[in-house]
Structure formats: structure tokens, C-alpha cells
Amino acid sequence: MAGKACHAFASTTRFGLTQALGRNRDHGESVGTIEINKDGKTYEAEYSIEQGLVTVYGDRDQETTQLGGLSEQQVAKFLLSSLIRKGYIDPIGPDAA
Prior knowledge:
This protein is of the alpha+beta class. It contains 3 helices and 4 strands, in the order ααββββα. The protein is elongated, with a radius of gyration of 14 Å.
């Protein structure tokens, strides 16, 4: 059963992930999209802010850390860079190959 649940979760598109997890702005949570270019490829991910924690959602995993004194965009970019380094998110667009 756990394997099926993980497979269903992994197959959810990253931008539909907010709805799949029941996150939305109506509950006081901030949701945004962050984009960075690395090695000629563009990566884009959704992030959320909840109770002082920033979470960035990759294709195969997510990263979370405290907001701290940095802006939410700075923290989200840091977390997205970590997901790229670990291979947990794929590039988007025509430069993805």
C-alpha cells in the first residue's frame, strides 16, 4: 500500500502539488513560484511558506527550512538549488535536453 501511495504522490505534477496537498492562500499560507538558471538550463518550482517554514517542491522530493532573516525568494532559490544538485527536479522548456 505504501508503494502505491508514493507512486501516486510522485506522479503528481509539481504545479498541481499545492492542490494535492490541500495548500491554498485562503488558509493564510503563501504560495509562489521560483525560477533559476543553472548550467544553461531553467528550473522552476512551486514553494510555500507556512508557520515560518519555506518548502520548495521538486519532481521527486521537497526541501524545507526556516525562513529566518532572508527573504522568502532567497530561501526558495537556495532550496531549489539544493533540489537541482541532488537531481530531484528536472529542467523545463526547450533548453531541458
